[in-house]
Amino acid sequence: MTKGAVRFEAVTKMFGDVVALKPLSLDIAPGTLVTLLGPSGCGKTTTLRLIAGLESATSGRILIGGEDVTHLSATYRKVSMVFQSYALFPHMTVRENVAYGLTVTKTPRAEAHARAEEGLAMVGLKGFGDRLPSELSGGQQQRVAVARAIVLEPEVLLLDEPLSNLDAKLRRHVREEIREIQQRLGLTAVYVTHDQEEAMAVSNRIIVMRNAEIAQEGTPFELYDRPASAFIADFIGDANLIGVEVTRTGAETEILVNDTRITLPLAHDKTGPAQMVLRPHQVQLSPEPVPGSFAAEISYAAWLGNVIQYTLATPVGPLFVLSPPVAHPFAHGDTVHVNFRPEDVRLVRTA
Amino acid sequence: MTGGPDGIGDKIMRRTAGLWLLIGLGAFVLLPWYATGGGFWSFGWLPTLFAGDAPAVLWMAAERPWLMLPLLGLFGATLSLGFLGHSVTLARGLVASGVLGLSALVFEGLTILGNGTRFGLFDGATQPGMGMGAFVTSAALLFILTTGISGLRRGRGDAFITGMVGAIIALVAVFVFYPMSFILIRAFELKDGAGFGLTEFLPRFFAPANWSVACLTGNGSCGVAVNSALLGLATATGTTLLGLAFALIFTRTNFRAKKLLRVLTILPIITPPFVIGLVLILLLGRQGTFTVFFADLLNIEKTRWLYGFWGVWLAQMLSFTPIAFLVLIGVVEGVSPSMEEASQTLDANRWQTFRHISLPLMRPGLANAFLLGFIESVADFGNPLVLGGNFNVLSTEIYFSIVGTVADPAKAAILSVILLSLTLTAFIAQRTWLGKKNYATVTGKADSGRHAALNPALRWTCYLVAIPWAAFTLLLYVLIVFGSFVKLWGYDHTFTLEHYKRAFGIVVRNGVHFTGAAWDSYMTTLTIAGIAAPLTAAVGLATAYLLVRQKFFGKDAFEFSTMLSFAIPGTVIGVAYVMAFNFPPIELTATGLILVIVFIFRNMPVGVRGGIAAMSQLDKSLDEASITLGANSATTLRRVILPLMGPAILAALTYSFVRAITSVSAVIFLVSARYNMATSFIVGRVENGEYGIAIAYSAVLIVTMLLAILTLQLIIGRRRLRRADRVETA
Ligand SMILES: Nc1ncnc2c1ncn2[C@@H]1O[C@H](COP(=O)(O)OP(=O)(O)OP(=O)(O)O)[C@@H](O)[C@H]1O
Ligand SMILES: [Mg+2]
């Protein structure tokens, strides 16, 4: 079954002289939720609009469900989109909005309205059909937009930063709802966000974009556990990036950091300068020296409730650390001893 | 043959092209190819369909074999649809067929003109002007072409959009560029058909009669071109300053009678062009009320100062200040108060703030108002005709060289070229002056700050200029009403209904008889304006939609050409239409259709501007949502965009309706005995010295337009309320 599969073959997009997308190839498996993640201006929206058919590719091929749709207009693609601004039609009631896609494709009115009601029930808005969009809260409007997109039973559902207009609490709730509906209906969904936590929470796979191309793609765990670059390491979860010298490669890798040799249980491709990725919660602090530790001074400490956040001044530069809460945390100016487990460390090439 | 990777897009292209092919063939076989005597919609041609009003097939088989040429295109389309399987190949086939058919049609149309032929081809052939059959066939060929273009796999391939672009380009080409080319051809024609060149044109173009500046040096009168240019500059400067004064009073003061001012600024827009000149004569002319009064009082000589530059200027100031005001109030309101506040916090005083911040930010508005004032002034025909005296300007000269005792079309063409170069120079100068600087303070964003008040000196200057002016305008309107109810203004002020009776008399005897002399032109005017207004709004808004929402090849040129038609004065358009549409292939003179068409293309630019403004405020994601939900562009336009554009549509309707009623410059050449318009009827009365009836008629027109505007405003008002509470949070 290829229904719902999305495939880009070396697709590029130019706006005049602006390169919005360098040759980009990707495959999205049917029934999965894939997130496009990346900093502002990296081409996420452009990619999404190319799938929807709202922009035409400058070169390359786009396939949906195995069919070449590169030159098919948006009207005829089996794709629906949820817009950041919701784009509800202000002059139609909620029911008319949800039924719109059905009525314009010549579904009989009664059936269209019945299915619209089902769609509204699915997003928990039963009984809101006669209201106007302006008579709903932001979160409700968002759900109407989702209902309007899914009643058409699209092969692919596209969502462009659907939650950015909602407050933090509601955002978490609605994103779980969207994920739940997507799984229940077995839809392929492509989700654009620049919030990495949101991406980690809902996605089967994440495609991280940067400068109009894909920086790395994989499951949330893969991206976190095996970042391919300093950019990814920093973007997916927080990371300390420390400059090191790789002195020996092979099945194990030996690095030189601050005059200390450490052997890491991982492979790296070449010797020379590299960057060590150390996650903030993988750093252990103790008041007394332990084997392999080095001393540092606390330059900033904050108690955040469930964690304590420190910034340390170390010989290799500032180090950002998250520690479990204790009764007597370290204070500004304290000297502490820092160590970490070599198996927690990842290496990436210097940017 | 379909399916495969081409799928649904291919099918749609086939279906659309097939439909247009059928329509084209149908028109070719079933509709009268040439223009029919009684007009198409009277269906008088039905009984003679296979005789005098035959369709193209019959003509082709008999004496006019060249009609086979357009058939080539339809034939090509048939072959393409029948034999070309691959969708890009098919699209190319359709494009080629469309181009072939259209160029064949244009070629035979421009070669065999009525009784003559050109280029030494088809000797002895004749044919009348094209009719419904030719029109539908060319439309079909055009849409076959555009459907083909949509399938070429460039861009998103929407046949509706390419069709719309094609249709508007074709309309502008046929009804703006084609007639304008006649002016150029006439202007550069050599004597006795010796071809084209500059030898005739240059001396006549640069003749002292056009360009003499003698009046400035004090010995003699100036050339007409210089007169027009001076008048245009004076009027543009005056209306811009006065408009600015009004706009400042409205936005930056607490003046009490703003409502009344507003009405006074609208009235001149709906006043037929001669009325103001006429009332001025009755007041300030040699026998005018004021003149006589002051002459007796101060014992000074009565002069004819009104008939000349200053009289025309005064009348134009009265007529065109409202336009400048309407342009400027938007801009003055749009200057963001936060900028002014920022300036004041930097310790600038009010005058410095106005001088260095507000004024520069209003620059685009001032430039626009100035340009509009200039174009309106040099194109104005009514006021110079009534008040000009020995002061001749281009528009009246053009008129007299067409309708005068010695008709001289070549002179009219050359004068039109001069007039056009004046307006185009102004147009280009304005664009250059504004340059590419960004004046983006005019955003749609709500600013909470308050506008800086004017400093007292400036405020009092505004009051002193604007209030007497407003009072004078008010007086004129009172006098219009007064003048229409007295026997002979200035001589016999007894009350009478005579003028109204003569113009709008109704006799009820064996039914209702409209015996008044004006009924005919009144009804024609309302009908034609009523037909033209929705069409103008449609063409204007469609163009705006394409400009704001669609991307297509050549969009910049497309935008420029729609803007350009705005710089063509009405007089010039009128002359061009007379020259172009008086004989085959398109013969329209003396029909009502030509009036409708001239209004559409004269007033379209304003519809475009209004549409662009309104469309830019509609979030683009609304149409995109509709498209991704499976609606095509046509459905989106109908169900989403149009319902949300209510106010813009009604504004465009009102404007084009009013302009169609009050316009005179273009119309004066195009009216006929059967289709006479109100304004040209009034010109006739004025020329005969029947002022009473002219004024009475004008008063009726003013009231008619007021009623129309109020009705539309009521609808707009209601719509706005409903829209507001619906749009709010979306
Ligand atoms: N219509 C356009 N014309 C010109 N350039 C454009 C256009 N649309 C997008 N771009 C450019 O293409 C690039 C990618 O834009 P895109 O909207 O895809 O970014 P994005 O990743 O969605 O960013 P954000 O997170 O800010 O929404 C940007 O550099 C943008 O300036
Ligand atoms: Mg975006």
From TrEMBL, chain A:
Gene Ontology terms: biological process: quaternary ammonium group transport
Keyword terms: ATP-binding, Nucleotide-binding, Transport
UniProt domain ABC transporter: residue ranges: 6-236
MF terms (GO), sorted A to Z: ATP binding; ATP hydrolysis activity; transmembrane transporter activity
InterPro entries noted in UniProt: AAA+_ATPase, ABC_SmlMolc_Importer, ABC_transporter-like_ATP-bd, ABC_transporter-like_CS, Mo/tungstate-bd_C_term_dom, P-loop_NTPase, Transp-assoc_OB_typ2
PROSITE patterns: ABC_TRANSPORTER_1, ABC_TRANSPORTER_2
GO cellular component, one term: ATP-binding cassette (ABC) transporter complex
UniProt name for this protein: ABC transporter ATP-binding protein
